[in-house]
Amino acid sequence: MKYSDKIYGGVEFTGVIKELINTSVFQRLKRIHQGGAIFLVNPKINHTRFEHSIGVMLLIKKIGGSIEEQVAGLIHDISHTAFSHLIDYVLEIEEEDYHENRFEEVLRDKELNSVLKKYQLDINKFIEIESYQLLEYPLPNLSADRIDYTLRDLFQIGEISIKEILWFLSGLKIVDNRIVLISEEHGKWFQSKYEFLVSEYFGGKQNKEVNILMKKIVKDCLTKRIIQEEDFHQDDFYLIDKINRSVNLKKMIGEIGKIGIDNGKFIQKKRKVDPEILVDNRVLKLSEIS
């Protein structure tokens, strides 16, 4: 199975990776946009959870992670809902962890389990997905998930180049089963890019406006029972179709600048990185050496 990734290039998948990608529960991620609702106002920002999940797996493989760690990276987002974090904004979940709370339920998908069993991988090991440190490591540290979505999002919006990405990736190193950087320069670069991602993309005017509008539309549709919470367990296009039965979504999105949205009503999870750097065989946080 040949695949071309925007960041890591052409690869060929075989075995458990290929079979997991071909499951219905994973293929669903092709219809869930990584950036949530922003694609409705900016169609160029159209990358998906499918691309990101494969990217995380490829990054873990690149830095020497085991096949089990690669599988963890591949499936870590299988429980994401339509429009990614929109459900968190609708239900006002500040930690943005709605998808994490239903991860075990989705992990027990029959087809997915069949593949894992075939390759003698124990489903119970993946329930606590955050235990895979290369994949998930608490802020303000680096992790494969955090690195991939940062590079992928910024590349998609034209903020960084492939040349910059390859340079940064050359600076990754594994120490005590966690991701560190080989120089202060790499640390400062990633920290500045991550700050831009959080403030100018996640917290940017365009992203805020469309999410505030979608939050309002979805809440109204839930109240009127046009949609149910379970509809978020499908995908973006399924939810759009149901909303459009009552609301002209395209027209409302087209008039977003006229609505007079109060940006102060949109609260997102606080994010800040302080990468660990390898200095003279010691691991120090960037803040400790800058």
UniProtKB/TrEMBL annotation:
Q: Which InterPro entries match?
A: dGTPase-like, HD/PDEase_dom, HD_domain
Q: Which Gene3D superfamilies match?
A: Hypothetical protein af1432
What GO molecular functions are on record for this protein? Answer: dGTPase activity
Pfam families on file: HD (PF01966)
Q: Which SUPFAM superfamilies match?
A: HD-domain/PDEase-like (SSF109604)
Q: Tell me, which GO biological process terms does this entry list?
A: dGTP catabolic process
Domain of life per record: Bacteria
User: Domain HD/PDEase, which positions?
Assistant: 45-159
PANTHER family, per the entry: DEOXYNUCLEOSIDE TRIPHOSPHATE TRIPHOSPHOHYDROLASE, METAL-DEPENDENT PHOSPHOHYDROLASE
Q: What is this protein called?
A: HD/PDEase domain-containing protein
